[in-house]
Specification:
Layout (H helix, E strand, L loop, with lengths): L3 H20 L6 H8 L3 H10 L4 H15 L1 H20 L4 H11 L5 H10 L7 H27 L12 H23 L6 H9 L3 H8 L2 H11 L2 H19 L4 H17 L1 H14 L11 H25 L3 H29 L4 H23 L9 H9 L1 H10 L2 H4 L25
């Protein structure tokens, strides 16, 4: 019989993987969708942003709701809603109905917060980075393996199924049905927490005052900003790279363009557990990887990976300017590596810093972080840029202030009080204390 903590980790991972498959399922089919609705490249950038627009607010809301009601309930409700509107988008005959239904279906992106909270209710602090990395890494692969790699092959250009003759309509319909089924299964087989004491501590900490308090601590603020430049970038590139390889290099084959884009998504997803594992490792062994932040081992690893993301984006622009699509694909892979390691490091810190508010803080960090997925595609597709390659360098420059903020908060004298000090919002008691509620 499978151990309950692994059963719930598997459930959370399946939910998140399917959620990301649905969230990015429009990306491989942008050419066909653009043809049917008459969209330009710039308008495709807007569509890419629209598919993200509901997620930040949704994540901010679902975090405390998951702390309050438990992951099985919020996961079930979310998956059913996402599935229903994915099915509706499959039948849409106007651009307006299509866009609205896809915006609501994009709430699949909030499954990340539900899963982070669920996993944190079952694993010890010293294993959180690894467990959350497995969850988020395999789940994130839904964008690459699911949306970019699998869907274009199952629903290719010559698709002719029993219900639809249009491939993207069939993809949206069947993934929506799977979401509804999984949502019902989650409510039947999911368990909210390891112990009733843990469930009670998390539930009692969920309040509006607590959301405002934790969301304004320096720890939550800096991790949110770091997540803008990592996960926000990942979301943006997942929705954009298929169009980039097609328009910037003239790669018209949908399967080949999607496969190139999938190399980024797979790296950004499957390698994420390494970022969490290394964060756990350096914390346990007290190993310095960047002595500037003496004694703050998780922070050292996180900052190093954030710098790597900025450098890899500059390399992405340089690779694109060579005109060689294969060089650009390799560079995109390394951007994905940087995102994966950084995100794993960030979400090793979140539940470790805020053990009884992991859902709330995950909602804050995940919600704010997703904003990058709305803004960055507009930069990538900006009509004032000389070409589609320069946008990556422009985005890299916008990340420098975030690096500066991280370098300030990660200083030992500030980092040690980052869960208590923050902006002027009061709280009842410190929230970074160790959890006494019986994790094994």
């Amino acid at each position: 019989m499978i151990d309950d903590k692994w059963k719930n980790l598997i459930l959370a991972t399946l939910m998140f993987n399917l959620g990301f498959t649905i969230w990015f399922s429009f990306a491989p089919f942008t050419d066909d969708i653009a043809t049917e609705f008459g969209l330009s490249v710039a308008e495709l950038g807007i569509v890419s942003s629209a598919a993200v627009v509901a997620v930040p607010a949704g994540r901010l809301l679902i975090g405390p709701l998951t702390d309050r009601f438990g992951a099985p309930i919020t996961a079930s409700v979310t998956l059913v809603i996402v599935g229903v509107f994915s099915v509706i988008s499959a039948f849409a005959q106007t651009y307006e109905i299509f866009t609205v239904s896809r915006v609501i279906a994009s709430l699949a992106g909030i499954t990340f917060v539900i899963g982070i909270q669920h996993v944190s209710e079952w694993f010890k602090e010293e294993n959180l980075g690894t467990a959350e990395g497995i969850f988020a890494g395999v789940g994130n692969a839904g964008a690459g393996l699911g949306a970019y790699f699998t869907l274009p092959r199952v629903f290719g250009s010559d698709y002719a199924g029993p219900l639809f003759s249009t491939n993207w309509r069939a993809a949206f319909f069947y993934t929506g049905l799977i979401a509804i089924v999984l949502g019902l299964g989650y409510s039947l087989f999911g368990d909210a927490a390891k112990t009733e004491a843990k469930r009670r501590a998390t539930r009692e900490s969920a309040s509006l005052r607590r959301v405002l308090y934790v969301g304004t601590r320096y720890g939550a603020i800096v991790l949110s900003a770091a997540y803008v430049m990592t996960f926000g970038l990942e979301v943006a590139m997942n929705g954009w790279l298929g169009t980039y390889y097609r328009e910037a290099f003239g790669q018209g084959d949908i399967v080949i363009a999607a496969t190139f884009a999938a190399t980024f998504s797979i790296a950004a997803g499957l390698l994420r557990p390494i970022g969490g594992y290394v964060s756990d490792l350096v914390a346990r062994t007290e190993r310095s990887v960047l002595p500037w932040f003496e004694g703050r081992y998780r922070e050292q690893w996180t900052f190093t990976m954030l710098v790597f993301v900025v450098v890899s984006l500059l390399v992405m622009t340089a690779a694109g300017l060579t005109g060689n699509i294969y060089v650009a694909v390799v560079a995109g892979f390394f951007v994905g590596v940087g995102c994966a390691f950084s995100e794993g490091a960030i979400f090793a810190q979140v539940p470790a810093m805020f053990p009884n508010n992991s859902g709330t803080v995950s909602g804050v960090v995940g919600g704010i972080g997703t904003v990058g997925g709305t803004v960055y595609p507009l930069v990538f597709a900006a009509p004032f840029l000389p070409n589609l390659h320069v946008g990556y360098a422009v985005v890299a420059v916008t990340m420098v202030p975030i690096l500066a903020l991280c370098s300030w908060v990660f200083q030992p004298r500030i980092a040690e009080r980052a869960t208590e000090d923050g902006l002027a919002v009061g709280g009842d008691e410190p929230i970074g204390a160790a959890n006494p509620t019986g994790d094994d």
